[in-house]
Design a protein that fits this description.
The structure is a single chain. This protein is 38% helix and 17% strand. It is α+β, with helices and mostly antiparallel strands. The strands form two sheets. It has a five-stranded mixed sheet with strand order 3-4-5-6-7, with helices on both faces.
Length: 334
Amino acid sequence: MLVTLLRQLVQYKCVRSIDFTSGRFSRVDNFSTSCQWRARKKVSQYSTVDTERYSSLVRAVLTKTSSQTPESIEDEDSKLFGPIIRSKPPSQQPREPKILHPLVNEAKGLSEYLPGPLAHIPLERDSSKTSIPSVTRILQQTMPPEQAFYLERWKRRMIAELGEEGFKEYSLNLFRQGKLFHAAIENTFTQEAISKEDIECPAEVSGYMESVSHVLSDISGVRAIESAVHHSTLQYLGIVDCVAQYRGSLCVIDWKTSEKPKPLLHNTYDNPLQVAAYTGALNSDNNYNYQVENGLIVVAYKDGSPAHAHFLNSKQIMQFWEKWLLRLEEYAEK
């Protein structure tokens, strides 16, 4: 077998000398590229790099005393990849309503408020108003996809925890507590009592009432409670929770309950649009001899922790009024 191996070596001219006593090759060279015992040498991808071009960069990296700054890094990037081309992000023009209906009713004017009985106009739908949508319906039908996604995800999570029947009972309980809370607020402003602390309220909403107690102390001059409003031009309806002075500013006030804290205005989602819609409707409605340009969203908590009061000045109300007009247009197009 050794003889056969030697013959093969001689045939391919791969061996110059062999140490027969040790049985090992003393020198092997002149391997051809076709020799099966030696792999082809790979060509490094760095062999064609222009080392002179990047010599300053290499020295900067290897030098211990060198320090990089944003300017030096930018200069190195420029050498590696070319000059930086700074482009401006595409500008997104905010949408504007096709028709910017005024928030304030010019026909009514800004006349002074004439004292009178507390407005408590019920929402009555006669045959001529059956097709007029409510503010709540319009907002629900035009809810942004992202907001609808989170709402649906919350609903599915609650159903997974409580089951279908449990979730229905939970929702009905929330609705009932909301109505009791609004009724307690109404009693606070309509009943004659020595103090607001003397007014009794159901145990279920005592925490909510404790939560808003510091806000109630800043409210005076109540003009309307749970009163219907109708925008005669834009044709929509709503029920205003309260119209009163809050720290000296006349506001449309919306009372909300929440299981989670909502310390920031954006946590209230579409509530600012709702307040703006009610404000515009009240200003258009001839049942009210005054106009409002401010709003207030009060978020109450069942555990009695202090409610968050989000005040909307006239400038903010106007911004949300324009967004409400866009939602109205979207609803009309459906």
